[in-house]
């Protein structure tokens, strides 16, 4: 990895909100910002990326809330997390890291927009996040996801996710991730999914048909029981909205160091 000879440039795109939340629950408010900053330093030193961006969720509602007011309903912010996020952002800005936060969008949308820009520039993109929503960005040979990273002495212990990992674990390809999640739902975002359709049934639909659009063109091509088939047909009117909520935007207006 990195900008070493005969290797593509690396863009390191960090889901800072996701990372701070994970550190907050693991280490508490007093250590979270320092832990996060030190890990960003270590990744930069090891891989020598030509671009490092830390994306934060902006305060306030997003376009998804406008489309679906129930989006993320019932999700409470733990006491102290706002201060931890602000401290982490301030530390990264002091380090000279490009910090991005754009009102109306989530950190994931910023990362998706930059991933598209990075791959267009023939860069190797590393997406640093444990968020499964970002599986849709993974592309063999150009975009991988770093789901966990921790210091192990002078080295980094990393948990990588590539396209093959997604397919082995879930039975679908990254390009099918949005359709898969539209069927199984996402409790953390209050996206209901299709009743009676679990992970195995959703994977069967996509293996047989390739996409939700093609399923609805040939709904008997997938092996589903009578109840599952009926539920899928009944859910058809809601699927465009669910997919819109789950699809990461690649048109976020980004400028250098844009903090909402």
UniProtKB/TrEMBL annotation:
Keywords (A to Z) from UniProt: DNA-binding, Hydrolase, Nuclease, Nucleotidyltransferase, Transferase
The 5'-3' exonuclease domain, residue ranges: 6-260
Superkingdom, taxonomy of origin: Bacteria
EC numbers on record: 2.7.7.7
The protein's name in its UniProt record: DNA polymerase I, thermostable
SUPFAM superfamilies: 5' to 3' exonuclease, C-terminal subdomain, PIN domain-like
Matching Gene3D superfamilies: 5' to 3' exonuclease, C-terminal subdomain, 5'-nuclease
């Amino acid at each position: 990895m990195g900008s070493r000879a005969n290797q593509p440039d690396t863009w390191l795109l960090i889901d800072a909100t996701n990372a701070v939340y994970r550190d907050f629950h693991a280490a508490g408010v007093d250590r979270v910002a320092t832990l996060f900053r030190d890990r960003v330093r270590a990744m930069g030193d090891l891989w020598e990326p030509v671009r490092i961006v830390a994306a934060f969720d902006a305060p306030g509602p997003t376009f998804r809330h406008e489309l679906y007011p129930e989006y993320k309903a019932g999700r409470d912010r733990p006491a102290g997390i706002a201060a931890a996020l602000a401290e982490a952002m301030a530390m990264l800005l002091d380090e000279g890291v490009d910090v991005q936060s754009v009102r109306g969008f989530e950190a994931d949308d910023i990362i998706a927009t930059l991933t598209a820009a990075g791959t267009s520039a023939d860069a190797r993109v590393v997406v640093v996040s444990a968020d499964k929503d970002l599986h849709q960005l993974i592309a063999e040979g150009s975009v991988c996801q770093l789901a966990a990273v921790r210091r192990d002495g002078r080295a980094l212990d990393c948990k990588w996710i590539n396209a093959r990992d997604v397919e082995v674990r879930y039975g679908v390809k990254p390009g099918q991730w949005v359709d898969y999640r539209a069927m199984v739902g996402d409790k953390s975002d209050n996206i209901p999914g299709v009743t009676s359709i679990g992970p195995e049934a959703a994977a069967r639909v996509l293996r047989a048909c390739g996409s939700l659009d093609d399923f609805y063109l040939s709904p008997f091509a997938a092996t589903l029981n009578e109840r599952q088939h009926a539920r899928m047909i009944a859910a058809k009117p809601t699927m465009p909205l669910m997919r819109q909520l789950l699809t990461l935007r690649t048109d976020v207006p980004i400028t250098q160091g844009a903090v909402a």
